[in-house]
Amino acid sequence: MTLTVPTRKPPTTAEPVFSVSGLWKVFGPKPERVPADPELSALTPAELRSRTGCTAAVRDVSFDVRKGEVFVVMGLSGSGKSTLVRCLTRLIEPTAGTIAIDGEDVRAMDRARLRELRRHRAAMVFQHFGLLPHRTVLDNVAYGLEIQGVGRSERRERAAEFVAKVGLAGMEKRRPGQLSGGQRQRVGLARALAVDPEVLLFDEPFSALDPLIRRDMQDEVTRLHREEGRTMVFITHDLSEALKLGDRIALMRDGRVVQLGTPEEIVGAPADDYVREFVRDVPREQVLTCRTAMRPASAEDAAHGPALRPEATVAEAIEAVARAGTPARVMDAGRCVGVVDHDRLLGVVAGVTPEAPTTTTTTQPPAPLPDEAPTATSTSGAAAGRDAAAAGATGAVSGGAAVTGTPGAAAGGDPAAAGATAVVEGDAFAPGGERRPASQAPARGTRGAV
Ligand SMILES: Nc1ncnc2c1ncn2[C@@H]1O[C@H](COP(=O)(O)OP(=O)(O)OP(=O)(O)O)[C@@H](O)[C@H]1O
Ligand SMILES: [Mg+2]
């Protein structure tokens, strides 16, 4: 079986679009006292509630969203995802901390500047369709441009372009009521894209869609991201969606970010027991890559065997090794940087951490890739010329899900309209008795979709 694994771009070290530091959002009476008081800020959520009547939805969170990446915020219902993302454009006012977009202090922006931010620089796509029911598809997509003051003929032209881009050409004259859920989501996506925002913010856009449409829409986002390289912040409570879409994932619990890393780091090196439980059922072979699984190569190893890229998943490596009947070489920029063999690959699947690489068998310097070397992986793109240190990112997983439409707020609607919190459909139980979405953790061994 050939697995199709989306090619990951190298982890970006680009400058941040959003830079968040020490961010707090506390709901309740006199919220400022909570971050200001070390004793209060150290309380558990339940203690804080009973002592002060406050809920700390976001607690001392710091992160950067880098240019061109898909930054996923994930966590169970109530963990603070929506609050966090709404704070970025001050649809919800933060209680403490700093937020910058391209170096500009968001908390210092006046109303006009904020409006500009929401209309032009950061467009939001919500879970619930926020389409204007009496307007056609074209006019819904043009809505954000209308708010921006773009003239009628230009906005219709641009809207038509984005309608086509999301696969709805021919449906321009329909009204939202004449569309399927997935199509409505595409309209919402087109509307957000049409304003050409620097960053797209998605709040659980696909969770209302059925699994097939959801997968379609996930693929759509992946495609748009690949083609346009747009920066995205994507909220989901669905682990498979996070692993599929995220370049990096911030995993939230009770308002805190408990781990921030690539999918491979989250699955391969969970920061604590909570994260470990969270990712327990992920098919590791579809997320972990040769970079994690490889051992140092001997001179003999480096001369033979199929070639894999460091970002090739362990699943791909298993296939290559099984076909060849020999270990496979991991090649980076034409050099053999390691070897994956049966033992290493089995160890990864079994969750047995490979021993730390030793230098005893390492070929120094790494052997060049012979011209005639067979190439066994489907992964493409990023390897050539890649700085090895920058290649810690990850194999991704193919899986499925979808997008959701956004109300007028997407392109600069007013804060109140945009402030509604998404609803979560959870029905399974997570570790610790918390509710957890049923879709979250596929059974080990599930192929194709993590
Ligand atoms: N306006 C508000 N007033 C008081 N508490 C709030 C308010 N909005 C959110 N909260 C609380 O803040 C916490 C985080 O809520 P938030 O909506 O950010 O969670 P979430 O991770 O987006 O959840 P979901 O997955 O259900 O959308 C929850 O405990 C919630 O009850
Ligand atoms: Mg939410």
From TrEMBL:
GO molecular-function terms, A-Z: ATP binding
Family label: Belongs to the ABC transporter superfamily.
Low complexity bias (residue ranges): 353-364, 373-387
SMART domains named among the record's database cross-references: AAA (SM00382)
Keyword Signal: no
Protein name (record): Glycine betaine/L-proline ABC transporter ATP-binding protein
Domain ABC transporter intervals: 43-279
Record keywords: ATP-binding, Nucleotide-binding, Transport
Top-level division of the source organism's lineage: Bacteria
Region (Disordered): 350-387, 427-450
Source organism: Streptomyces nogalater
